[in-house]
Amino acid sequence: MRTLTDLGPSKLLPNEQERVRAAADGLLFSDDARDEATVETLAAVRELTAHLVATERWSDTSATALRDDLEACGPVQLVG
Q: Exposed e or buried b for every residue in 47-63, given b needs 16+ CB within 10 A?
């Protein structure tokens, strides 16, 4: 979660911070990339990062880094 550390928590609203934490937790404990909860979590991550870019709060580079960091928390099939 170096991306969040580098950017600082002020770059996300409290509910967004919670969504990121929940996504990281869910992906860390998932063992199947095809699991419904994992698929939903990944969709939520993509939705959040797209929103951050669309509202011009984050650059595409920063949002991609966050998405990549979160996806790296997931099952081997995602990062392999």
A: ebbeebbeeeebeeebb
